[in-house]
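User: Before I run my own analysis I want an independent prediction to cross-check against. Here's the chain; please return only the structure tokens and, at the end, one sentence I can use as a sanity check.
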Amino acid sequence: MQRYRGVHLVCFGTPAAQEEHARLQAHGFAPQPLVHLERKVEDGMTVRFNVVRAAPGKMPEGRVQYVQHLVPEALWRAAHLRHRNGVLGLAAAYVVAADPARAAARWARFMGGLPRREGKLIALETDRGKVLIGTRAQIKALLGAAPASPGIAGYALACRDPKAFARRCKDAGLKVNRHFAVVLPPALGGAWQLVSREKQ
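Assistant: Structure tokens:
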């Protein structure tokens, strides 16, 4: 994977990591052995999860993986899901590709989805968001920043009030463009695009 400053991860949820591992194996992604992880959270509960990762180079845009939460009640709590800044969650991930159609076909096999056109980009829907794939020029025109291909440019964040969140970003010294995309500082890299809840 080519290294660059910024976003390197797209992670999909699954209720069955072992089955995803077998499916990816059958589709030629040569997944690494299933990884079992755990850690304690602030109240002493232990979160446990299984992770499925493709072999290096099979998803060259970054670390693209599946995770199965084995103790979801320890992590997905109401207190952790209430964001004072109005962010409701992740709505999309933006992927840069030299050949978007070819990349979308590979991502479709990885995700088990069907690609479709969304404006100049190619979209792959999930239950809680989507992956949007385009050339560097296409993604940069939308987000204001994009790494060289292959790469992950940033995320769309679903907000209750994108305009209010954009004002907070501007007040913090961040650049916001006409598409409500926030270019993040080099230490973070990438970009956020702010979308309304209805577009999630």
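Sanity check: The longest strand covers residues 87-96.
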